[in-house]
User: Which sequence fits this backbone?
């Protein structure tokens, strides 16, 4: 049997189909929380699930710096740099929120000033405090850990970031701890692994051709890099469940799938042209997260351990995605 092309794989994800639907979550989240930074790379992927009316995200307010009418009219046109007034006006019209999910921030691809991650997060926390919002989920990154020692890294693992992005997220977490200590706000910093579509493999899918295939490091055991992944719709379901969680959340929490994924498995599942190249001596084969704390808090979406399911999840989000102005 011939391998399917990326277009053929996209066709397997029918319009309106949602293999991750959770009606209990959908009933709980209406009016409970909003997504901040919906026009950034990760925010856009997660928000794209809202194009599917079967998705619990279909009713979630999405914050943009400029007015948007994507999916519904309850979006939040608000630039956090202008202070909390835009959020307060929205809440006056549509009602209180219990949780902000903050995906806004900068990466080396969008800014040369990584200190903005703390500045942006602090602005959202200040607005949440004024608005009386009791819980904030802040997007941190698994980059705070650095390379690790090859074993899955739990939240108790020491942090030794190897780049300015990881350092900036660790600084952001320290700021968040100080704010939480000085207020009655619950702040959970999410150390997010690789979200499919915002990662090194699938982000470059459109550039891979038979003449210029995707290059994946090959290590002495004959396999490629092992990383912690989750699909964008799967990540959205996790975020929704955390936002509505009845008990207290920890101050930091790893967020990825239930088992790590070989990067070449994603390339195969997405039908991408690719080949191995000998990994340089400085490359690390296994950089993974221990997400057992997360799995104990919520029921994880199905398929977070499976490269094919993660790829189908990404294809569904990709189908619905429309580029927005970066936040």
Assistant:
């Amino acid at each position: 049997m011939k391998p399917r092309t990326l277009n053929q794989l996209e066709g397997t994800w029918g319009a309106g189909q949602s293999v991750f639907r959770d009606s209990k979550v959908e009933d709980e989240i209406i009016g409970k929380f909003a997504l901040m930074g919906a026009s950034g790379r990760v925010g856009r992927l997660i928000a794209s699930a809202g194009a599917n009316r079967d998705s619990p995200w279909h009713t979630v307010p999405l914050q943009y710096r400029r007015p948007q009418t994507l999916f519904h009219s309850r979006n939040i046109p608000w630039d956090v740099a202008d202070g909390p007034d835009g959020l307060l006006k929205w809440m006056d019209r549509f009602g209180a929120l219990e949780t902000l999910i903050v995906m806004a921030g900068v990466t080396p691809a969008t800014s040369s000033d990584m200190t903005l991650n703390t500045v942006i997060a602090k602005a959202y926390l200040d607005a949440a405090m004024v608005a009386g919002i009791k819980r904030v989920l802040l997007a941190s990154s698994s980059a705070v850990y650095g390379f690790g020692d090859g074993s899955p890294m739990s939240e108790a693992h020491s942090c030794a970031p190897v780049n300015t992005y990881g350092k900036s997220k660790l600084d952001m977490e320290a700021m968040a701890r100080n704010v939480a200590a000085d207020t009655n706000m619950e702040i959970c910093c999410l150390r997010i692994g690789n979200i499919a579509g915002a990662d090194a493999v699938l982000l470059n899918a459109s550039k891979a051709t038979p003449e210029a295939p995707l290059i994946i490091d090959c290590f002495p055991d004959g396999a490629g890099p092992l990383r912690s992944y989750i699909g964008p719709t799967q990540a959205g379901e996790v975020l929704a469940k955390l936002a509505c969680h009845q008990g207290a959340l920890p101050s930091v929490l790893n967020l990825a799938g239930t088992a790590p994924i070989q990067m070449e498995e994603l390339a195969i599942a997405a039908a991408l042209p690719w080949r191995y190249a000998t990994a340089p001596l400085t490359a690390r084969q296994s950089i993974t997260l221990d997400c057992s704390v997360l799995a104990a808090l919520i029921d994880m979406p199905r398929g977070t351990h499976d490269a094919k399911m993660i790829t189908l999840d990404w294809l569904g989000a990709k189908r619905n995605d429309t580029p927005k102005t970066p936040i």
